[in-house]
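Reopening this ticket.

The earlier resolution said the output was attached, but the attachment link was broken on my side. Pasting everything inline this time so it's all in one place.
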Amino acid sequence: MYNKRRFDKRYLFILIVLAIALVLVVLTISLNKERNLSPIEKGLKDMGTVVLKVVSAPFNFVIDKIDEMIEKNNVYDKYKELKNKEEQMDSVVAQNENLQSEIDKLKDTLDLNTVLSDKVYMNATVVFRNIDYWYNEITIDKGSKNGIEKGMAVVTPKGLIGQITKVSNYSSTVKLLSNENMSDKISVKIKVKDDYVYGLISMYDSKSNTYTVEGISENVDIEKGADVVTTGMGTIFPSGLMVGTVKKVTTDNFDLSKVVEVKASVDFDDLDYVTVLKRKSE
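Inline output:
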């Protein structure tokens, strides 16, 4: 009840002020500008001016606030527009970087093809890789319709990655050298001065990205950083394909032969484009 009375008094006061202001405005307008004003008329005119200022002040304040709010909204809209453009720019930059990476890899593949003059080759793209068998195998987009056959070597510009094991019409499965269940030991040779020493890759460690090469004579001095390549013995891989570089040399448990730890030349976590090889006589 108290709040209602208080509201009524305020409402009545506003009405009275507005009525007085209206009367004063009318009087001000109706006064003849050419005649001299009496003291009473001057007082009424001054009072009307003051009342008009007082009454119009809240309205002017509200109008100013509305203009300020509109201006802030316009500024915020411009900010959101610029922010959106910035985010789009980040996306474009990321896409460009990704495209540039793919272009660089394709360029590397083309460079590789210029040095494989004694072999038949075919470029392919990795289209599938099972995360549960990440280091075991990959699937490429070339198959028997493209001349791919089981047993062909698969490489990247940095070196050997594996061998074709399954072939369908338009895709093939590549068994990677990083397969920890490697069944076939791969014959490799290590550069020692002007000669080579021979050994077999017995296993791969995915944590360190290294191969273990065994069966090397104890009497040979192998330097760290020496190149390790395929020998071409047998029918598995052609000769001279890069495998890696010597990282560490130890001896076996019986001190009869050396065990060489070889850092793989290929990053098996980053396989997008590959090249399939076969001998020309095939």
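Reporter confirms the inline version is readable. The chain has three domains: 1-30+37-114, 122-176, 186-265. The longest strand covers residues 195-205.
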